[in-house]
Design brief:
This protein folds into two domains: 181 residues, 3-Layer(aba) Sandwich (Rossmann fold); 172 residues, 3-Layer(aba) Sandwich (Rossmann fold). The protein has twelve helices and 15 strands. The two termini are 24 Å apart. Strand 4, helix 4 and strand 5 form a beta-alpha-beta unit. Strands 3-2-1-4-5-6-14-15 form an eight-stranded mixed β-sheet, sandwiched between helices. The protein is of the alpha/beta class.
């Protein structure tokens, strides 16, 4: 199969969809890999490394899209790439359709087969292609939150871990999934006082046995959430409903009860955000202030550490890329139920219920 790896052109996105070692595996399996010139430079991989791995380098993104049967990316195709998409082409990437109706319609109109990393799901419910980026984002959320708590950045002037004789910062984490548990663990490791909220008592019980003693777990409801955010220095939103828009847990009027200079990091922004006042930002302009509260809502947080993120992503996506390339998408999804859950759009039809429900559209079951 002809596999195309375009250069990511979303603002401040430095990741690439595959490492040179990943290319080697695909070439050894008999596939033709074409990668756009300098696609890997932001992640520390040179064109020479890709050439030695067996890839072909192309100057033109349009040519790559035109010839590739399977496009493998990191982020969703942006507007300038939509004109390159075509019927029958397989596109394998993070889409987050539920956050963007226009993006969804463009892919419906293209006739392409869109397989979303974020909805590939194992029988256990685990999202294996979302997990490594969630781990990165959860840890980065604490780093970024700590930075913007500094007075120079407009924050409260709070050191996350405090010092002897001075209280540590209060970090409130909404959601105890992969992002939330990683955020809680790192914040606790830095010495913060952490409150972790979730609606799954079973999940909270599990984490209470493994997280440090300075993490308090609480069942999440409206009253508890409001009580916690009033004393929070840093709030990290980590709520995920696979394939669907994130629920809005913090409303605009709630911000008035928060401390001036407090920071919100909304990791759920890819799925529309779990804070009502969230809108996507970039690494170049990452924050804005509403009601005295700093909002950080970078939609591609792991792109800030592209070397780590690219290697972690390829580790988990490569087996699925090989299955799609070896078998074609129809046989691959028949043989792999996890991959079948990744199908979001097929030849002009929505095939993922959560995406269809978000926009009130019809879902066609792939069977």
């Amino acid at each position: 199969m002809k596999i195309g790896i375009p250069k990511e052109i979303k603002t401040n996105e430095y990741r690439v969809a595959i490492t040179p070692s990943g290319v080697t595996a695909l070439v050894q399996a008999g596939h033709h890999v074409c990668i756009e010139r300098n696609a890997g430079v932001g992640s520390g991989f040179t064109d020479t490394q890709y050439l030695l791995a067996g890839a072909q380098i192309t100057e033109e993104a349009g040519t790559l899209w035109q010839t590739a049967e399977l496009i493998v990316k990191v982020k969703e195709p942006i507007r300038s790439e939509w004109l390159h998409m075509r019927a029958g082409q397989i596109i394998f990437t993070y889409f987050h359709f539920a956050a963007d109706r226009e993006l969804t319609q463009a892919h419906l109109d293209s006739g392409a087969i869109c397989i979303a990393y974020e909805t590939v799901a194992l029988p256990s419910g685990e999202l294996p292609l979302l997990t490594p980026m969630s781990e990165v984002a959860g840890r980065m959320a604490v780093q970024e939150g700590a930075k913007y708590l500094e007075k120079f950045q407009g924050g409260r002037g709070i050191l996350l871990g405090g010092v002897p004789g001075v209280s540590a910062a209060h970090v409130v984490v909404l959601g105890a999934g992969v992002v939330g548990s990683n955020a809680a663990r790192l914040a606790a490791g830095l010495g913060a006082r952490v409150t972790l909220l979730d609606t799954s008592v079973e999940r909270l019980r599990q984490l209470a046995q493994t997280l440090p003693a300075n993490v308090q777990t609480l069942f999440s409801n409206r009253q508890t959430l409001l009580e916690q955010i009033t004393s929070a220095d840093l709030v990290i939103g980590c709520v995920l409903v696979a394939g669907a828009a994130a629920p809005k847990l913090i409303r605009r009027e709630d911000l008035k009860s928060m401390q001036a200079g407090a920071v919100i990091v909304d990791v759920a922004v890819d799925q529309g955000g779990c804070i009502e006042t969230t809108h996507p930002t970039t690494h170049e302009n990452p924050t804005y202030v509403i009601e005295g509260v700093i909002h950080y809502a970078v939609a591609n947080m792991p792109g800030g550490v592209p070397r780590t993120s690219t290697i972690a992503l390829t580790n988990v996506t490569l087996p699925y890329v090989l299955q799609l390339a070896n078998k074609g998408w129809r046989h691959a999804v028949r043989d792999n139920d996890a991959l079948r859950h990744g199908l979001n759009i097929v030849e002009g039809q929505i095939t993922h219920q959560a995406v269809a429900d978000t926009f009130g559209l019809r879902c066609v079951f792939i069977e």
